[in-house]
Design brief:
The protein has about 450 residues and is mostly helical. The chain has 2 domains: about 180 residues, Up-down Bundle (Growth Hormone, Chain: A); about 200 residues, Growth Hormone, Chain: A. About 70% of the residues lie in helices and about 0% in strands. The chain is built from 18 helices and 2 strands. β1 and β2 form a beta hairpin. Keywords: Membrane, Transmembrane, Transmembrane helix, Transport. It is a multi-pass membrane protein. It is found in: Membrane.
């Protein structure tokens, strides 16, 4: 996903959004099924790597595609709705794992052996299949079409949206002609006109820059590393780097943390146990596993997923609340608040001494981190013009995934230094992200006016 980010961003900003979404999701179905059919680690890794190459585009394009169907009034809320859908997906996956993975499903077909985890992977291809088929009936982003001067196609897309939203015939759409943005004067704001000619025009702070970039026709990637977007781009990239470093480090550690908590409770009669004791037990057990030559016997119980389901459910509730507050607060204020809570939870985890307190703190950390990550993507789409949106989202997510890799490499290193360092890391990066978020321009509509 990291290696393909720039290529996907360039294709999406020059060729369109819909085709990447449809064909990318359908190709992902094939990759996931290849993972499910794999019979060796090498086959599984190759299929996953190709799947990452394929999904790097649709994942980023989806954000831009949905945002461009809405005007400034609804864009922030749309991002929270995307977060709600992601949290529902995060909730459904441990529930699916709860139902499938503990089953002793081992069978052979021809010379191929299959297990419950492969069935789990095969089922997880269903969302991509349904999404790819459904999106084939949707129009191309009219905002993208207008930015390319394809006004006739954009008008057809608006008519399709009008018919779907109102149930009226397409030929009753009141707008009969769109202005060609490529030849339009600089005093017009098409971010609002592309959605409705009735709404009051809002001055776009990046409009003059967008027109200048169109005139020079620079490469979308190079434009992000030139004035006037260089400083803003670096800020957005580092923001995503820090947020995903902290969020994904914690998110990927949670299943192991909960499993270690459960094992430690069974071994110890004490009801109170420090997080340092859990970390020490975790490190010692890892050392024993490395030294032994015995075959690893994996015992999966349904209880292994209960806490993860609770965390995902908490994120769903958090996004529901955020969707009702985002328009009042704006991306920036929501980000700063979520990052401060998340960073505080990262530090507070050090003092957690019970299973309940650990579950509450990790749930808050995961929820606020996910909220901040989604809001950061929304910020990226609002602060940059149409011609650069998908590219900046792709590159920002690329930096975020690099941060995820760094976090998962550094976390065990910090664990080896002692008990406090890993908590300083997961909490500290969130406060660093909070500072970066505070340096960004406001994206609240009333502030833009």
């Amino acid at each position: 996903m990291i290696t393909s980010a720039i290529a996907w961003g360039y294709v999406a900003d020059t060729r369109g959004r819909k085709a990447i979404l449809v064909w990318g999701l359908l190709a992902d179905v094939i990759c996931v099924l290849c993972c499910a059919l794999s019979q060796s680690i090498i086959q599984l890794m190759i299929a996953k790597f190709i799947g990452g190459l394929v999904m790097g585009g649709p994942f980023a394009v989806l954000m831009t595609y949905l945002m461009e169907f809405h005007n400034n009034k609804y864009r922030a809320r749309v991002m929270m709705c995307i977060g709600i859908m992601f949290s529902m997906a995060s909730l459904s996956m441990p529930i699916l794992a709860y139902l499938v993975l503990p089953q002793n499903w081992d069978f052979q077909m021809w010379d191929l052996k299959y297990h419950s985890w492969q069935i789990y992977l095969a089922i997880s291809a269903t969302p991509s299949l349904l999404s790819g088929v459904a999106l084939s009936f949707f129009p191309e982003s009219p905002r993208f079409l207008m930015s390319q001067g394809r006004t006739i196609e954009a008008l057809k897309a608006f008519r399709t949206m009008y018919a779907l939203n109102t149930g009226k015939p397409k030929d009753t759409y009141p707008i009969t002609k769109l202005i060609d943005e490529l030849s339009a004067s600089n005093d017009q704001n098409f971010e609002e006109i592309s959605i409705s000619t009735i709404e009051p025009v809002t001055k776009d702070p990046v409009k003059d820059v967008e027109e200048q970039l169109k005139t020079k026709d620079p490469s979308p990637f190079l434009a992000l590393f030139q004035k006037p977007y260089l400083k803003l781009s670096i800020n957005v990239y580092m923001l995503n780097f820090c947020i995903l470093l902290g969020q994904n480090t914690m998110r990927l550690w949670l299943p192991q943390l909960f499993a270690s908590l459960r094992e430690f409770q069974e071994l110890s009669a004490e009801s109170m146990h420090s997080m340092c004791s859990i970390l020490e037990y975790n490190v010692n057990k890892t050392g024993l596993v490395k030294e032994t030559s015995e075959t690893c016997s994996v015992i999966i119980t349904s209880d292994s997923y209960t806490n993860n389901i609770i965390v995902a459910g908490a994120c769903f509730v958090a996004f529901l609340l955020a969707s009702s507050l985002i328009n009042k607060l704006g991306h920036k204020r929501l980000q700063i608040g979520a990052l401060m809570i998340s960073g505080s939870c990262g530090f507070a985890l050090y003092w957690s001494s019970t299973t309940i307190s650990t579950l509450v703190i990790t749930s808050l950390y995961a929820c606020m981190g996910s909220l901040a990550a989604t809001s950061a993507v929304g910020t990226s789409t609002v602060l940059f013009p149409t011609s650069l949106r998908t590219m900046v989202v792709c590159v920002a997510l690329m930096f975020g995934r690099i941060g995820s890799i760094f976090g998962n490499i550094l976390f065990p290193v910090f664990m080896s230094f002692g008990c406090i360092p890993p908590f300083l890391m997961v909490g500290g990066v969130m406060f660093m992200a909070c500072i970066l978020s505070a340096l960004l321009p406001s994206t609240k509509k009333s502030d833009l006016k």
